[in-house]
Write a structure and sequence with these properties.
The complex is a heterodimer of chains A (111) and B (113).
Chain A: E1 4-7, E2 10-14, E3 19-25, E4 29-37, E5 43-49, E6 52-56, E7 59-64, E8 69-74, E9 83-91, E10 99-101, E11 105-110
Parallel strand pairs in A: 2-11
Antiparallel strand pairs in A: 1-3, 3-8, 4-5, 4-9, 6-7, 7-8, 9-10, 9-11
Chain B: E1 5-7, E2 10-13, E3 19-24, E4 31-38, E5 42-50, E6 53-57, E7 64-68, E8 74-78, E9 87-94, E10 103-104, E11 108-112
Parallel strand pairs in B: 2-11
Antiparallel strand pairs in B: 1-3, 3-8, 4-5, 4-9, 5-6, 7-8, 9-10, 9-11
The chains are: A mainly beta (111), B mainly beta (113).
Chain lengths: 111, 113
């Protein structure tokens, strides 16, 4: 079983819909990252969370440390949001700066 | 633009060859991370350097090596290349070694024929 699991693997929605992508992990973590990868391949860091909730524009990320679960929400989705969204965790402990990645959620927003 | 640069953007080479990928971190960042993204394995951590010293090692093959130079740029050397080494190689940088956000470069797409 992977340490980081994402769902769904693929998501297609109409423009304007509210989107939720889920990430569950099985290890103790010091931080969780949400990344966006566009079709060209580049990776953009969206959020880094260790507790609670963060908001940036139409994007909201939440984390529940006790339940080992995080969600990424997109409000008023737009075709330009079409990308692969990747959850990554940083394990607790000294020397654990590396990230362990989920397999990603491919989001397609149809106009 | 993350401020992290990687060269080259694309690299096509043959099996058995050796290549060097280069990464320049954001100004002020001391940590550099290398990641490999292949179709069947997804994103995987290879190796991290902090201020010139190796800090952590992941799923890096013995045929691969890396270093970080005094000016903090890093190089990833891949030798005896195999078809399965074809992948996107990303470099990321962060300020330090505690819980810091990582900023990713645009990646180098390596194709081994």
């Amino acid at each position: 079983k992977n340490e980081v699991e994402q769902s769904p693997q693929n998501l297609t929605a109409q423009e304007g819909e509210f989107i939720t992508i889920n990430c569950s992990y099985s290890v103790g973590i010091s931080a969780l990252h949400w990344l966006q990868q566009h079709p060209g391949g580049g990776i953009v860091s969206l959020f880094m969370l260790s507790s609670g909730k963060k908001k940036h524009g139409r994007l909201i990320a939440t984390i529940n440390i006790q339940e080992k679960h995080s969600s990424l929400h997109i409000t008023a989705s737009h075709p330009r949001d079409s990308a692969v969204y990747i959850c990554a965790v940083r394990r607790m402990g000294f020397g654990n700066e590396k990230l362990t990645f989920g397999t990603g959620t491919r989001l397609t927003i149809i106009p | 633009d993350s401020g992290v640069t990687q060269t080259p953007k694309h690299l096509i080479t043959a099996t058995g060859q050796r290549v060097t990928l280069r990464c320049s971190p954001r100004s002020g960042d001391l940590s550099v991370y290398w990641y490999q993204q292949s179709l069947d394995q997804g994103l995987q951590f290879l190796i991290q350097y902090y201020n010139g010293e190796e800090r952590a090692k992941g799923n890096i093959l013995e045929r691969f090596s890396a270093q970080q130079f005094p000016d903090l740029h890093s190089e990833l050397n891949l030798s005896s290349l195999e078809l399965g080494d074809s992948a996107l190689y990303f470099c990321a940088s962060s300020v330090g070694t505690t819980v810091n956000e990582q900023f990713f470069g645009p990646g180098t797409r390596l194709t081994v024929l």
